[in-house]
Design a protein that fits this description.
ten-stranded mixed beta sheet; mainly beta; Thiol Ester Dehydrase, Chain A; six-stranded antiparallel beta sheet; 353 residues; binds coenzyme A; 2 domains; UDP N-Acetylglucosamine Acyltransferase, domain 1
């Protein structure tokens, strides 16, 4: 990879916002005066790619891996837009750019009280774009084979016919062919469920949840936003996984060492809750109705009904199946506010008085 650029260097393109760049919805037509997020993301990729085109060598390929779009002001049809990419950093093969889009004042929404003859611009959107420069020998062969039709793209029928489906997924979610999903399950924006994943009935996957092949998620489980369930994770019924909780599947990862055969199983038993932003080191078993506090790092097995918190997680009490603290009296009896009775025997919680 060559790098003739320095951070702060800029590239620029100009485009005219025609109908093809506006958001169009089936029932409503062109619905808002924003130049659409989808088209902006494409145009941002285009201008940022200008850096990569000169950085990559012949045997390399530039691949966009992430683009963010923040709208700042409306942009009507007919406006002329200037997109400017600024190089932020290049680390190894990763190229990070920020970008901004400006609408020029000769757009149709030019306000009558603006002075004429002066060209002013309005920021309409901005964001970041990340690209990687990859070795074409490994990556490019795949592209060539796809182009030649030697490898067929796999269809993902999961969301194709939601009207006949017993489960629902937002159109932005990708459910690969071969994933099993139970009836009544709802899958929200930007989720990805891989082939071979098994999701039970009445589950909810919040925004941006990833479910790998081989993962089992029991009936009635809820997974909050931004959670990745990696291969090796098994959740029984009615498990709650808080937002941004983190699972792992390799204890000692190294980028250069393949450890696929060393994936460990993480088992979450029925009714357990994992608090927001907790981290579960792989290979542990979290007992039925156990409760992991927000932000805890779980490094060892957790007993059924135990409440653990902190880094590393330590047991600080007991929780009932309904999620209330259990305070055991001198007779080792505890009463949950719901009326359910619990008993502590040999360091373990039993249901019933
Ligand atoms: C663990 C939890 C259930 C404890 O709730 P609680 O029984 O009401 O506990 P309290 O707020 O009375 O706190 C008791 C003590 O534990 C500490 N504590 C509470 N939660 C903690 C946590 N997650 N990590 C570390 N310490 C915690 C408190 O600071 C307090 O310490 P102190 O006695 O020294 O003052 C709760 O704090 C929690 O983490 N809930 C998870 C919330 C969540 O992630 N929801 C996801 C869906 S939005």
């Amino acid at each position: 990879m060559l790098n003739p650029y320095l951070p702060g260097d800029q590239q620029e393109i100009r485009i005219c916002v025609d109908e093809s760049r506006m958001a169009r919805f089936p029932d409503e037509g062109l619905v808002h005066p924003l130049y659409s997020t989808f088209a902006l993301a494409q145009d941002a990729e285009w201008v940022c790619r200008r850096f990569v085109v000169l950085m990559k060598e012949e045997h390399e390929e530039g691949v966009g891996s992430r683009v963010s779009v923040v709208h700042r002001s409306p942009c009507p049809l007919g406006a002329e837009v200037r997109l400017v990419a600024t190089l932020v950093e290049v680390i190894d093969n990763r190229v990070l750019c920020s970008w901004q889009a400006f609408a020029s004042d000769n757009s149709p929404d030019k306000s009558p009280d603006k002075p004429t003859g002066k060209s002013t611009e309005r920021l309409i959107a901005e964001g970041e774009q990340e690209q990687h420069i990859l070795n074409r020998e490994r990556f490019g062969k795949l592209i060539d084979r796809l182009a030649e039709g030697i490898i067929e793209r796999q269809p993902h029928p999961g969301i194709a016919d939601k009207s006949n489906s017993e489960w629902q997924a937002h159109p932005s979610a990708i459910v690969d062919a071969g994933a099993k999903i139970g009836s009544g399950t709802r899958i929200w924006h930007f989720c990805h469920v891989m082939s071979g994943a098994v999701i039970g009935e009445r589950c909810v996957l919040g925004q941006n949840v990833f479910v790998a092949s081989g993962v089992h998620l029991g009936n009635g489980s809820k997974v909050q936003n931004n959670v990745s369930l990696y291969e090796g994770v098994v959740c029984e019924e009615e498990v709650f996984i808080g937002p941004s909780a983190v699972f792992t599947n390799v204890v000692n990862p190294r980028a250069a060492v393949i450890r696929r055969d060393e994936f460990k199983t993480t088992h979450i038993e029925r009714g357990a809750s994992l608090g927001a932003n907790c981290t579960i080191i792989c290979g542990v078993r979290i007992g039925a109705y156990a409760f992991v506090g927000a932000g805890a790092v779980v490094t060892a097995d957790v007993l059924p009904f135990a409440l653990v918190m902190g880094v590393p997680a330590r047991q600080s009490g007991w929780m009932s199946a309904a999620g209330h603290r259990l305070h055991f009296d001198t007779e080792a009896q505890a009463l949950c506010p719901t009326g359910a009775r619990y008993r502590l025997r040999d360091g373990r919680v039993e249901v019933g008085g």
